[in-house]
Amino acid sequence: MADTSTPGRSLTARHVGGVYGRSLVAQIRAITEYPADFWVMASAGVMWNVLQLAFLTVLFAAVPDVAGWDYHEMVMLAGLLSVAAGSTALLCDGVWSTGGMILKGEIDYRITRPAPVVVQVATTHIGMQGFGEVGFGLVMVVFGWIGAGLGLAAVPVGILGILCAIVIEGALITVFCAVNFWIKGPMSPFAFMLIDLQNSAMNLPLGLFPAGVRIVTMFVVPVAFVNFVPVAVLTGHLSAWWLIGTPLAAVASVLAAVGIYRLGLRSYDSSGH
Amino acid sequence: MTQGFAVDRAFATVAFKRRLAYKIQWMVALVLGGGAMLVSMAMWRNLLADGALSGYDWESMRAYIIIGFITATVVFGAADWHIADRILDGHIAIDLTKPVDFQRARAAEYIGSMISTVPTVIVGVVGAWLLFDPPGPASALAGVLTAVSFVLIFPLAFGITYLTVLVCFWTKRYIGVMWLREALLGFFSGMMIPLAFMPSWLQAVAWALPFPHFTTTPAAIYLGRVDTAGALGLLAAEAAWALGLWFGGRLVFRQAVKKVTVHGG
Amino acid sequence: MPILEARSLTKTFRRPDKASGFKGAVKHLAQRRYKNYTAVDGIDLSVDAGESVAYVGPNGAGKSTTVKLLTGILKPSEGTVRVMGRDPHTERIANAHDIGVLFGQRTQLWWDLPVEESLKLLKHMYGVSEADYKRRIAKFDELLDLGEFMPALARTLSLGQRMRADLACALIHDPKMVYLDEPTIGLDISVKDRLRAFLRELVDDGTTLLLTSHDLADIEEVCERIVVIDKGAIAYDGPITELKAHYITTKAVHLILDGPADLPELSEKFPDYAWAAGDAPSEVKVTYESARFTTAEVLADVTGHLRPRDLSLSEPSIEDVIRRLYAGELTK
């Protein structure tokens, strides 16, 4: 049929990027409707990190290092995780609604529109805590960077690390939220467990944990590449070769997220009758 | 009066059952609480390998971490969402037409949901006991008083939670308020790191807040860091906070409820 | 060539089979058992361009599931769907440009944004040109009075406003094939009238329409063809006029008398007519086959005998026919 070949019928990166950008910008406008929420959420984001920094400061008043990592290195570790988590809140917080939308049949309309469903879902919300997390997380990264004696020469590695960290974190959260396509529920317990366990464990050097934990966090659910590997490479705890794994983990995570979301849509059975 | 208690019990039972029905909640609570406990154990074992720090050796730290797990599981596992949702979706307008005291009914529900975390606590504690073999309480009396301090956590947790939930009269979403509260509670209770490690000014700040009773108070009593008089003093302070927050909640609610029409329930 | 074609379309859902209560939940956890439930069972449907089809059936008959299959939201368990020659599920993006969808029970507006913002986002998503967008918005404004709530946040709209805005969302890209699932649900009479007028105009302009509704006035006013579905299968498919001609074979006269009516006596005297009690003791309803008797004959008989104070004529509505179709009293 002639129609199939009309331009604009297939998805181009430019079109998808445009839809993504516009939807997100529209959400920023929606935020201004609720100033009280903005301030509560942003200060919650800052508070988590202030207390994380306070924890490290209090701890390092009593100990010289944790498994060979000093104060500034650990501040960077916590800061990078915070930047990654906060960025996903700003860039794709809507994926957390996947479960709720499946339950309420709200995926329906999105399937009938000419844009990827995951992009439409991801841009339905902005986690305002992200402003606080990214802001204070960057402060911690810079503070740790300078304290650890890293110079400007390492900045490109740092930027690569941050970009990959954001991509990996966002993709992994998407994967775990997409579990709701099969295990129905309004909440996303698996994604929630992911970030909570990350907050407990990944703020610490991996050397503290048994080998099994190291293998899982590097090769199964590659959260180690979000903050541990880049910081360990920058500070010389790991050889520079490990850095190659960071973009690889990013690509693998994105492929997994897109694939699982697609599989999920195939088994989507809407709700009601 | 008995009529009142029957209603409380009914609310608590419903909340308890509703929570139990959420099978996945059990697993989540166990993975999160257990995971955090294991991470803490790994870190402190490493740090305390060469001897005690700020008065804690590896032996006492094991008990301390398990106590932190118990309070965290009970407090973070309770169903504070239900109260927040009632305010945010306007259901509160219906609640206010019922011949039940709003705060008391929510307290009963909240405590019912806290009780539903007990199976998780038991599984976690038994597991931790087998893995880490923590020391017993300093004395039998200390054990009893620790249990009392755990019981007092129920009304105290409600008091703090309820006050923060009332912020929903002014916001659209609850989650930010919840995170703020949980962050402060995690830090100032001593769950993240014992208060003894903190500089004295920070300890003073912590003790000016209700949070230390969530880990530091039961741990101090359990480990014999305070004598019987000191333990009773801590319990009195804990009870005073619970009572004070209860009436504080009433006061704030009276102001907040004027906003109900604005939310348009 | 049909614009929409479904062949032996079937959708089977797997539902967990568990007893209620805590015990049931535990039992289900131990041994997972499922029941298969066929919502749509071998439907064949072909719609030509420009047709307006009403798709009706009782609750749970499989209407919404069919719409979801036709729009590509659900993947058929068996059978095929083609919309303009494409499979709407596998060729989702290409298909999306040709179809417009409205689910009356849900909105597609962005909840926290002004209506205008939602429409603009959709404009970009569908790649609608600025000129087309402006022209269509102006038309929607004229017919649906969109202007009055364009700047309002979606969550502050009344149901009628929301539905009008959703209709604009569904049509902003000028789709060739439009599916409306209960577009008038919960609306008051005046909004319904306005919506129907709008839909008639849409059909007159050549848009192909498939509409489900429980309100048969929607169907009679907007559609020419009716498809009745029951228990997942098609019970009737044909022009509405034919449905009426075929099944509406009786007419009735309502009489209001001075005193109570003696039904046995009337039945004996006029055995060719069916006599039934009315709403009050002094009211009776006479039903007769329109092929055998003219209304004048019946009236002459009846008024000669009864001298009613007042009378009225009624023709069974399509609603009655469909009610009887649902009840299984009529077969194709």
UniProtKB/TrEMBL annotation, chain A:
This is ABC-type uncharacterized transport system, permease component. Pfam families: ABC2_membrane_6. The keyword NAD does not apply. The keyword ATP-binding does not apply. Keywords: Membrane, Transmembrane, Transmembrane helix. It comes from the Bacteria. The chain crosses the membrane at residues 38-63, 75-96, 134-153, 159-183, 204-228, 240-261. It comes from Glycomyces harbinensis.
From TrEMBL, chain B:
This is ABC-2 type transport system permease protein. Keywords: Membrane, Transmembrane, Transmembrane helix. It comes from Glycomyces harbinensis. The lineage of its organism: Bacteria, Bacillati, Actinomycetota, Actinomycetes, Glycomycetales. InterPro entries: ABC-2_transporter-like (IPR010390). The chain crosses the membrane at residues 26-44, 64-83, 110-132, 138-171, 183-209, 229-249. The keyword Membrane applies. The keyword Heme does not apply.
UniProtKB/TrEMBL annotation, chain C:
Its main location: membrane. It is found in: Cell membrane. Keywords: Antibiotic resistance, ATP-binding, Nucleotide-binding, Transport. Gene3D superfamilies: P-loop containing nucleotide triphosphate hydrolases. It holds the Pfam family ABC_tran. One of its GO terms (cellular component) is plasma membrane. It is a peripheral membrane protein. GO terms for molecular function: ATP binding; ATP hydrolysis activity. This is ABC-2 type transport system ATP-binding protein. InterPro entries: AAA+_ATPase, ABC_transporter-like_ATP-bd, ABC_transporter-like_CS, ABC_transporter_ATP-binding, P-loop_NTPase. SUPFAM superfamilies: P-loop containing nucleoside triphosphate hydrolases (SSF52540). Residues 4-256 form the ABC transporter domain. One of its GO terms (biological process) is response to antibiotic.
